[in-house]
């Protein structure tokens, strides 16, 4: 029996006119209810159909893809383009549109150009290479935790633990001085906030690209043992391209893991039985636990944008060339047909089919690194601080509801 | 069970190595998938099928060879490696 990997799921066909939006849902939806759940508007759309028509903030319409199989299908099929310059491409905010049209990184490109650039980075995040980094990552986690303990509680776990760990790690790998972290973290927040006006996003992007471009120029003259140097010395890559790739790695390298670390900590503090499982976990169980946290929390809540390049059918729904689609990883990862009781956090679950890193050719390049960081950071935190607890009432916490990457703004803890 | 890989489709996510490390590796030179064994035994069948299902580039093909002692005829676990529902 063949179990070949035929991508032909979305079939060419569309004779029906594209329907008007079938819901009053306006994207991006307001977060509400439990901070770990996708906004209820997305969950209600998922309950209606895995593919629904909806309206964006700018009045345009697009498809909201919420089902697990449908999200996989779209992301694996390059007839759904990731190129933000194509007409009909759905943007979540004016700032996101600005970002993708100024200087698109390779996440907003299609193959073959996307593959050309991505493949310059693939050996940097090999599983074996990340495995070899584990002692260095453990040292970063231990040192960061030592500093947090020395400061004494209560502290904000976001600024004292969750954010420094992946920032230190990506700075080390990329070759960016960690002393500059306040600058790049601040600019990164502007880039990822859907409230940021277009000009503010342009300014933040320009200042980061100029910073990384200067760094690349210096490294071209005097290369060191890091990713940016290896990019900077290439003859087939302009300095601007190297800076753009470094920008992607810098932002993706710290924002995602930082928010996963803090939100995971909160989820575990709210579920003491699950936290106990993590404390008792050996290396294999700790890995499985992180997969379930990735599934349950799915911090890329905003939806991955694509635009159809031809008429297709998706799960029985006709999609026209030029239609925008937003692939909702968060609802896909709660799809009951794949994850029974998907709204429950269960660290014993085999969650490896989750889509938290996306799917298809754009799937997260740094996922081995993200996994290792999360496994080490969370296991170390909960084993070294068995009395870890919230230092404020949970009602006082606020969440990153307008950010492309979900998380908690601050997490005051003591131990 | 017979496994083959298509390096042209590989996007070096590392999912296969994490899922079935005795069957798949990544090249040190270019990061592309490398097959360590093309006929893994029955004990590895479930993990190999999962690796194929998780591969974001769909670079892994698994087929059940006729007469293969490890063949698991018709008992595919619905991993998604048989393609997506249309």
List the helices and strands and how they pair.
The complex is a heterodimer of chains A (415) and B (86).
Chain A: E1 2-3, E2 26-27, H1 40-48, E3 51-56, E4 61-65, H2 68-76, E5 80-81, H3 94-102, H4 113-118, H5 127-151, E6 155-156, H6 157-162, H7 164-174, H8 181-192, H9 198-221, H10 227-232, H11 239-270, H12 272-280, H13 283-297, E7 304-308, E8 312-314, E9 317-319, E10 324-327, H14 329-332, H15 367-384, E11 389-390, E12 412-414
Helix pairs in contact in A: 3-9, 5-7, 5-15, 7-11, 8-9, 9-11, 11-15, 12-15, 13-15
Chain B: E1 2-5, H1 15-19, E2 24-26, E3 33-35, H2 45-54, E4 60-63
Antiparallel strand pairs in B: 1-4, 2-3
Written description of the protein model:
- The complex is a heterodimer of chains A (415) and B (86).
- Chain A contains 15 helices and twelve strands.
- By secondary structure, chain A is an alpha+beta fold.
- Chain A has one domain (7-414): Orthogonal Bundle (Cytochrome p450), CATH 1.10.630.10.
- In chain A, the strands form three sheets. Chain A has a six-stranded mixed β-sheet. A three-stranded antiparallel β-sheet of chain A has the order 6-12-11. A two-stranded antiparallel sheet of chain A has the order 8-9.
- In chain A, a hairpin with a 2-residue loop joins β8 and β9.
- The longest helix of chain A has 32 residues, at 239-270.
- Chain B is α+β, with helices and mostly antiparallel strands and 86 residues long.
- Chain B has one domain: 2-Layer Sandwich (Alpha-Beta Plaits), CATH 3.30.70.20.
- Chain B has helices at residues 15-19, 45-54; strands at residues 2-5, 24-26, 33-35, 60-63.
- A two-stranded antiparallel sheet of chain B has the order 1-4. A two-stranded antiparallel ribbon of chain B has the order 2-3.
- In chain B, a hairpin with a 6-residue loop joins β2 (24-26) and β3 (33-35).
- The longest helix of chain B is centred in the middle third of the chain and has 10 residues, at 45-54.
- Chain B is globular and about 35 Å long.
- Chain B starts with a strand and ends in a 23-residue tail after the last strand.
């Amino acid at each position: 029996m063949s179990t070949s990997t035929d991508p032909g799921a979305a079939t060419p066909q569309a004779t029906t006119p594209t329907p008007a939006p079938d819901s009053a849902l306006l994207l991006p939806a307001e977060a509400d209810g439990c901070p770990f759940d996708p906004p209820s508007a997305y969950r209600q759309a998922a309950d209606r159909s895995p593919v629904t028509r909806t309206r964006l903030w700018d009045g345009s319409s697009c498809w909201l893809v919420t089902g697990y199989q449908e999200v996989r299908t779209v992301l694996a099929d390059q007839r759904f383009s990731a190129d933000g310059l194509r007409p009909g491409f759905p943007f979540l905010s004016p700032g996101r549109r600005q970002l993708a049209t100024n200087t698109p990184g390779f996440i907003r490109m299609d193959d073959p150009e996307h593959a050309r650039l991505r493949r310059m980075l693939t050996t940097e995040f090999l599983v074996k290479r990340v495995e070899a980094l584990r002692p260095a990552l453990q040292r970063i986690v231990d040192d960061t935790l030592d500093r947090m303990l020395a400061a004494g509680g209560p502290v904000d776990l976001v600024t004292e633990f969750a954010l420094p760990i992946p920032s230190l790690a990506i700075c080390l790998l990329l070759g960016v001085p960690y002393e500059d972290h306040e600058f790049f973290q601040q600019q990164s927040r502007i880039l990822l906030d859907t409230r940021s006006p277009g000009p503010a996003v342009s300014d933040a992007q320009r200042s980061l690209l100029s910073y990384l471009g200067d760094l690349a120029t210096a490294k071209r003259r005097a290369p060191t043992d890091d990713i940016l140097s290896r990019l900077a010395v290439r003859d087939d890559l302009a300095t601007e391209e190297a800076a753009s790739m470094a920008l992607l790695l810098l932002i993706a390298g710290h924002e995602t893991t930082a928010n996963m670390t803090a939100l995971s900590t909160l989820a575990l503090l709210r579920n003491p039985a699950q936290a106990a499982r993590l404390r008792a976990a050996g290396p294999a169980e700790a890995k499985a636990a992180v997969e379930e946290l990735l599934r349950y929390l799915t911090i890329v809540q905003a939806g991955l944008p694509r635009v159809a390049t031809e008429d297709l059918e998706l799960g029985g729904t006709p999609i026209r060339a030029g239609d925008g689609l937003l692939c909702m990883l968060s609802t896909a990862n709660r799809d009951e047909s794949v994850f029974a009781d998907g709204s429950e956090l269960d660290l014993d679950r085999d969650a490896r089919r989750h889509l938290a890193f996306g799917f298809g050719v754009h799937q997260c390049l740094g996922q081995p690194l993200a996994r290792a960081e999360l496994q080490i950071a969370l296991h170390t935190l909960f084993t070294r601080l068995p009395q870890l607890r919230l230092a404020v009432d949970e009602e006082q916490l606020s969440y990153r509801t307008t950010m492309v990457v979900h998380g908690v703004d601050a997490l005051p803890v003591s131990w | 069970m017979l496994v083959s890989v298509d390096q042209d489709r590989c996007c070096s996510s590392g999912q296969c190595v994490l899922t079935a490390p005795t069957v798949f590796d990544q090249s040190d030179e270019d990061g592309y998938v490398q097959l360590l064994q093309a006929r893994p035994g029955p004990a590895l069948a479930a993990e190999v099928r999962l690796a194929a299902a998780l591969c974001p580039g769909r670079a892994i093909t698994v087929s059940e060879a006729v007469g293969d002692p490890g063949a698991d005829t018709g008992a595919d676990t619905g991993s998604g490696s048989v393609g997506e529902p249309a």
